[in-house]
Structures are given as structure tokens and as C-alpha cells.
Amino acid sequence: MAFRPVIWFCAIAFLLHSYLLVVSAKKTYIVHMKHHQKPASYATHTEWYSDHFQSLTSASPDSLLYTYDAAYHGFAAALTPEEAESMRQSESVLGVYEDTLYSLHTTRTPEFLGLDAGLGPWAGHSLQELNQASQDVIIGVLDTGVWPESKSFSDFNMPNVPARWRGECEAAHDFDPKIHCNKKLIGARFFSKGYDMASGTKESQSPRDKDGHGTHTASTAAGSIVQNASLLGYAKGNARGMATHARLATYRVCWKSGCLGSDILAAMERAILDGVDVLSMSLGGGSAPYYRDTIAVGAFAAMERGILVSCSAGNSGPAKESLANVAPWIMTVGAGTLDRDFPAFATSGNGKKYNGMSLYSGKGMGRRLVELVYNRGGNSSSNLCLAGSLDPAAVRGKVVVCDRGISPRVEKGAVVRDAGGVGMILANTAESGEELVADSHLLPAVAVGKKVGDLIRQYVKTAKKPTAVLSFGGTVVNVKPSPVVAAFSSRGPNMVTPQILKPDVIGPGVNILAAWSQVVGPTGLDKDTRKTQFNIMSGTSMSCPHISGLAALLKAAHPNWSPSAIKSALMTTAYTLDNTNSPLRDAADYSLSTPWAHGAGHVDPHKALSPGLVYDATPEDYIVFLCSLGYTIEMVQIIAKRPNITCARKFHNPGQLNYPSFSVLFGKSKVVRYSRELTNVGAAGSVYQVSVEAPPTVAVTVKPSKLVFKNVGDKQWYTVTFVSKKGVNQVARNAFGSIAWKNAQHQVKSPVSFSWTRL
């Protein structure tokens, strides 16, 4: 979600789980069938699945929620534990898995990425030609739906919908396809059977967005240009998506309490069949083996059909090992900051002025200092300003210091306001460090980092009569340094396959302005009655659609490129220096960032259009990779959905996959050797020299050190040998470097992570 606490998600998951236990013995299960065993007597797999389901259960036909064919081989059904076990015993069944609850990972961006200035020539073609080509590219967004009336979905001057499109807009009581869909928004569907089963309630059955998140992500990916957009005056300017001429299809899979795997899989299935070119998914759960990961399985099927799948990395940073969506056939996207801020200030009675951030848009506090209080309530959670924790008699007419954490940031402000407080200083703790996220608070409020927060907390405790006044500085641009890696952006290493470096890249994900639903205020709180056409949000939810839109531009420029080639172009051209020409920093503590936080770096659309070389990979390559993970053939079949898999070919190391980055694990062996193949997508006769950066503890040899590509499309192999040096006391358990292939026109750069495992 745009950056909401994990505890909220856990509470929802607990409530859903409790409901399942108490109200009904049935749960939703996803059943994976042996697709190739369909008897000839059945015309379709759907008929076979339905009959098989009926034969093994006493359930009514409506307990069969979905049948899958393109994204998965099997069906989702409401079953008792006994019925699920009966399914597992069937000879025709590969596996039976309980449905998974996923969560959402919650505009100067185009200018910051250089899109407003135009992308310049691409292979001899103009920006106008690229825009024209992108009209044939379709981005599918799986999220909370869409607010179709937003100006971001205007189809002004757009040509007819591509003839190959097989999708549709689904009618609902509040959604008329003839009125609400057009040549920009060409598809709008909803999927809720799994959610309805798990929650026991039916929300509005409609593609319409009642949350705002889906409208925000869809317009970020491919929104039309809207002039004079702002959030209540903040970030005023043109709002636009990354691929302003691309088409959009939205698939509502997320509801009030989250997103169910069975619904997500059904939407992925439909999107594949509808004909999308890019799938954008700003949602995820924890990490799991790929055959148990609904999104990974569906994404594999999409990749096989040439669809790039872009997913958010998660908002569980800065903790290590916190990534979601790490399958190598998925583009895993972390978040960075823009060069835009919304400064706000807290001035204390001792004359000190502290810098913070806010999107508060009301009349303010004036200039008069008022009393400042902290931890003044009837219970131990008053420092966190949780609901019911503040004593109105102690906070009425005062500014309240609230520690960040546990409850949503904007909800703390509502608690202060309801208790009679006139302002709030939202102070970070060690967990959120120095990172500031702007919020459209309901009362005058300023967010400050941990260091400033500690100074203010100390001032309140030691001053005889602490006072403060809050003020607001509007919007400032050209902020330095930027980008900075967002503290909330989830981090590696990759715990599912440590030999694959994740995340892949970072994109803008902090304080992003985009379109918004008109049935919810900018804070998302029920008591927020304000209405705004645009909102500013933060999260890897926001960075993911940036990359989805850029992938659509690359697809338009290079329609024959595979998803792996597009991913490679975005990764190998990413940058790792900020706008002060210094290495990227981490917002958690402003230390130097690493590839475990930023992957290959921050995307650069200009360079990605012409990367020179790409690391390509076929579905067969990914199957060899899966066979190298110690999975059974049945597990590999769940993902790859092919009957004839033998795993006769395996990599000696999963890191041997032709991936645009490297993850080197030193354990028993002090030598790791990887081979890679590069494909020339630049000029004929291109020559590249290798350039290596490595820590002093590792020797790196690349052979050959020069690659010559006589023709466009030529492929060349190279081998890298990494040796952990003897006699070096390896105190750090990890280190980082890079391998780059360079000539006068291009730098094709790959990050390398090194890990030393304790034996």
C-alpha cells in the first residue's frame, strides 16, 4: 500500500483468519491440475476441472470460484479441509494450496526522469514517432480499480483501440462501459470471488475505485497530460504518466481488507487473454518458493507470452531480507525520492527552528507559540497517539509530539485533533530514521526525522514551559541530494534465490502526485471529507507503475524485444550517482546505499531506449534455472505448466542464469564462476571493453576482456571468475562491485553483490 504499517495488515489477516475458523469450515484453495491428463471426452479443461471438482466434493457448483488455463492450470474453490485433502490424493492433481492474502504496497516525476524534455532520437526516429508507436501498447494494472472520470484518462486525439485487443469494460451499477471507457481506458474488470469467500462480505461489485490507490498507479503508468494539477495547491504543475499515449486496462483485485491470490490469479489470466503488453502490480506478500507464489506463477505465464511484469519490491525497509516479488522473470522495483520537497517547520520556544515536511493545506496556526506536550495521556501508548490514548484535558489547545509507528501517520493527527490539540509534530524513531514522507494532515502537522525528533522530545522533557509553533513552506524543487533510496523500500538479499540479486532497479516512489478517486479524501480516513482530483502518495506502489510505463515506451520503440531484454535495458543503463555526482544514499541514515537497496540503480529512460547490449533470457532458460533450485519436476511444472519437463539440463549454480546483475556467494568454495551472453542491439561493428570494480577482498577476472559484435543481433559470451582472496580477514559478511562493458557510446553496467556465508 502506499506505505501503511505492517501491523494493520497483520490485524486484517488475523481477522480474516478468525472469520474463516469461526464462521465457516470452508476456505479458498487453489488446486493445480495435471493439465496434460485431460481425458479426450472433455471438450475443454474448464469442463474437466468442474467435473473433477464435483466428483470429489459435495459442494454446490458455486463453490467453484475460478478456473484457470492461461496463467495457471487448475481452479480455485471453497473447500473444507477434508475436501482439500481428498483433492490432494487425486492422481490428476499436482498440488492444493490455501489462498494467500496479499497487500497493496502503498508531479515532477516525468521532468525528473527527463521525459518532459523529450527522449531525443531513438534509432533515427523522433519523439512523435515514439508517441505514435506507444498508442499500440497496452498496460494492465492490477489494483483497487479506477476512477474513470479523472482527466488523466482522457482520450483526446487518441486513435481507435488496437484491433488485437480482446478485453472489455464490465458493467456495474456505478460503471457504464459506454460512458466510462474510451480510447485511453480500454478495459476495466473486477475480481472478488476469493475475497468474498474469505471475508464473508460483498463489497461494491464494480471496477470503480473506492480507495484511490488504483487510480493513482494507473495514471502514473500511462495517464494523459493534465495541466495545473495539484494536491490542494501542493506540487502544482502538469501531471502525466510515463507513457502518455499508451492504453490502460484496469483489473480490480484489491478490496478493503487486501487482495486474495485467487482473485489476482484470475485477473492475470484475464489480462493475458485480453492482450496486455505490460502488467503492473503494486502489491505483494512475503517471499515464498516460486511454486507457492501466486504472482510468480502467473507472471511466468505472462512472460512466456511476451508480457513484461513489473511489481513493487515492498515497503518493509530498511530491514534486510524484506523483499517481495523476487522471481527473476519479474521486474522488482524499489523506491527513491524526487528532487521535490514540501518543507514545513517547527519553531520551539527556545528560538530553534527545526526542518520537517508536510502537505497540510488549511489556515495554519498563526505565529503565536502554544504549549507543547509529549506522552500526555491515560495510558502507555500516548507517545504514539493511538486512538483513545490522549487525555483531552492534557492536550486541548496544545501542539502534541507523536512518535511515528504502529498506526497510520495521518490517523495520529486525527486522534490529536479529536482530543482538542491544535497541532502535531510527528517524530520519527529509530525504525524510520531520517526519512520523511509528506502527508495531507487534517490539522497543522509537521513530520521530522529521528535526530530532530530526539531534540524536540528532549526539549519537552527539560524545558519549564515548552512551546512551539508550526509553519508551512509550500513546494520546493531542485532539492539536493536526489534521488535518495527511500527508507521504507524493501531490501535484499533475496531469500528465495540468494544467487539472484534483487531488487532490480529503483524509480520515483516518494511524494508522487497522481490522479485520485472522488469518494475518498486524500488521507483515506473516513472522517476526511475533503475531495481532490489528485493526491500525493509514497510507497514502492508508486515506483512500480513508473517502471511499467517506461517498459511500455521501450516496448513501443522495440516491439520485438522480449520482457528480459526490456528489463536488461532498464537495469544496465540505470545510474548510481545522485544530482550532486555522489553515490546514492539511503534515507534511513544517509549512509551510502548498496545494490541490496537500489539494485542496478535509478532508471534512466533516455539511455534505456538505446542500451547497446542486452542480457536476454528465454522461457527455456528460466526452466533450466528452476531445475537448478532443487525443486521436484512437479514443482517446476506448476510454474512452467509444461508436461514434458525432465530437468535434464541444470545450471551448476542458479546464478548462472543470463541475468543483468550478479550475486556471488562464497561458502565452502572460494571460487565462483559465471558465464553471460550479451546480444548487440546497437550498431554493427560495435566493440566493448570490460571495466571491473571489486572490493579488495575479491579478485575478478573477465574473459574475454573485449567483445566485438560484427552485426546487429550478434551474441557473444564471456566468463567471470570471482575468487575470495586467501589470507584476508573477511570481517564484513558482504561487499559490492560492478562489471561494465564500455565504448564511446554505451556503458552496459551490472551490479555485483558478494556474500560470505558462515560454514
Automatic annotation (TrEMBL):
Q: Name one Pfam family in it.
A: fn3_6
Domain Inhibitor I9: where? 28-105
Peptidase S8/S53 domain span: 135-577
Identify the residues that the record assigns to the PA domain, covering every copy.
Answer: 371-455
In the UniProt record, does the keyword Hydrolase occur? yes
Kindly list the residue ranges recorded as spanning the membrane: none
Keywords for the protein's UniProt record, in alphabetical order: Hydrolase, Protease, Serine protease, Signal
Origin: domain of life: Eukaryota
User: Which N-terminal residues, if any, form the signal peptide?
Assistant: 1-25
State the residue spans of region: Disordered.
Answer: 198-219
Record carries keyword Ubl conjugation: no
Q: Which InterPro entries match?
A: PA_domain (IPR003137), Peptidase_S8/S53_dom (IPR000209), Peptidase_S8/S53_dom_sf (IPR036852), Peptidase_S8_Ser-AS (IPR023828), Peptidase_S8_subtilisin-rel (IPR015500), Peptidases_S8_3 (IPR034197), S8pro/Inhibitor_I9 (IPR010259), S8pro/Inhibitor_I9_sf (IPR037045)
The Basic and acidic residues compositionally biased stretches are 205-214
Sequence ranges assigned to domain Subtilisin-like protease fibronectin type-III in this UniProt record: 656-753
Which protein family is named in the record?
Answer: Belongs to the peptidase S8 family.
Name of this chain's protein: Subtilisin-like protease SBT1.8
